Amino acid sequence: MSLDFGRRADLADVRRVGIPRALLYYRYGIAWRTFFEQLGCEVVLDAPSDRATLETGDHLSVDECCLASKLFLGHVSALVDEGVDAVFVPSLMSYGRFETFCTKFQALPDLAENAFIVAGRCVRVISFRIDEPKGDAEEDAYLGLAARFGASRKEAKRAYKAAADAQRAYDASMAREQEKLVKGLSKLPEAERPLTILIAAHPYVSHDPFVGGVVEDALREQGACVLFADETDRSRALKCSYDFSHSIPWIVNRELIGSILMLHEHIDGIVLMSAYPCGPDSMCDDAIERCIKGKPILTLTVDAQAGTAGVETRVESFVDILSYQKKGGYLNA
């Protein structure tokens, strides 16, 4: 890929870059923030999701958009209201044949721009595209964007390296902490070991306080120890997923499946969460339920309906069933 350093600095006037606190921010947010800060930009994050975020995004969306996409547009709107110079919305397509992203991530820049045009509002979107099988490599994408900010090749490489290193260190730290927790639990006597429940969901579902926070809080209030499928070692989980299937195309779903297999013997139950109507999850969650045996599974599909009582009640019932089962209730019935 040819990079025009010093020639096409059309983003040199952008000083305040907004990053929506949604979707793949929960996967690559550390890298994105570090990259723009290395270029001398001020990074602006809007507030975490709430009901108002969803209502704003829902107004900007078509009905067919998934809950997560509606929240994303709500976050973009909040950043526009804060007066950022531009909003960063990358187009992520693929890192390999069986390492692709949902089509919503591929078309996200167009979705953001057009949704606001229809609403009569203006949003300046900055982006890059990663599609490694077709030659759009990750490093080139970052370097090309840095060039548009007026960075030299050396400055661009330094910014990309800092971003990649920061994200890698963060991911490794989260994986180590969860591995340490799992090892500590395994050393406890069975009578003292709390129920251990794995939340398997896209990180923008499990870690968004408005979406997954309700489930995490309900589990912890019931005394359960909560693990997250996205906080295992990604490379190991991805490799492990091929023991389950060789044809699943989506990288994040692959990692979640691999994580379930890796943690299977250490958990008492699994909560499968999905944002309605996620296409990849509808296929993969069904396959998980059918093919991964030996652990109870609670499937939760989160939609735009108001109220959390239904979700909390289902989680509480799930924990009660697991607790009764752990005490041998069903075996002795």
TrEMBL record:
InterPro entries: CoA_activase_DUF2229, Dehydratase_Activator_Redct. It holds the Pfam family DUF2229. Transmembrane segments: none annotated. Residues 16-230 form the DUF2229 domain. It comes from the Bacteria. This is Acyl-CoA dehydratase activase-related protein. It comes from Enorma phocaeensis.
